[in-house]
Amino acid sequence: MFGGEERSALFRAWVGGPGLRVLDLGCRYGALTRAYVSGNEVVGVDVDRDALAEAATLGIETVWADIEEPLPFPDEGFDVVVAGELIEHLRVPEETVAEARRVLRPGGLLVGSTPNAYRLKNRLVFLAGRQPGFADDPTHLHFFSPADIGDLLAGFEELELRYLSGRLTRLHPRLFANVMVFRARKPR
Fold it and tell me: With bands split at pLDDT 50, 70 and 90, how would you rate the model's confidence at 115?
């Protein structure tokens, strides 16, 4: 997984805690959840029951649900919503982001990540008439640029975007990073 430990460390810092109520959308087996579960009350949501069973071994509450449907939670019940490597898999990411906003408390954070689809390597592959490796994954329904992330999170404040994982990322993050990690705050 691109950005593995680097991404986990950033999620740990950005989610924060202890004592926060965290909603982990598309938690799968809990690989990223491990970074911020300590001291927080985490609710993991996924459509894969086997993955949820493994995530439950982390001591989190698990909820089987389709993230592309209205979430089965009341308004303003979470301090943080996590969407790690999720938005590119959604048919209508705007609806899921709207649901995340609904369940966040005022001032709460949405923290997520997605592949940097428009990094230089992918652009060169497109120019050569081929599809980048991630495009071969039929579950990747959307490719996001930094501007697309800004548009998707337009109802939030204090958007911060970081670029991770790439040998040349320090030279030009937007062109060379494999992963974009974002956080934004629900208005108070």
Answer: confident
User: Residue 41 forms beta bridges with which residues?
Assistant: 21
What string of DSSP letters covers the chain?
A: -TTHHHHHHHHHHHH--SS-EEEEET-TTSTTGGGT-TTSEEEEEES-HHHHHHHHTTT-EEEE--TTS--SS-TT-EEEEEEET-GGG-SSHHHHHHHHHHHEEEEEEEEEEEE-TTSHHHHHHHHTT---GGGG-TT------HHHHHHHTTTSEEEEEEEE--TTTTT-HHHH-SEEEEEEE---
Question: Lowest mean pLDDT: which of 9-18, 24-33, 143-152, 162-171?
Answer: 162-171
Q: Identity (one letter) of the amino acid at 27?
A: C
pTM above 0.85, yes or no: yes
Q: Does domain 4-185 sit in CATH 2.40.50.140?
A: no
Is residue 51 within 8 A of residue 32, CB to CB? The reply is no
State the average pLDDT over residues 5-32. Answer: 95
103 touches 111 (CB < 8 A): no
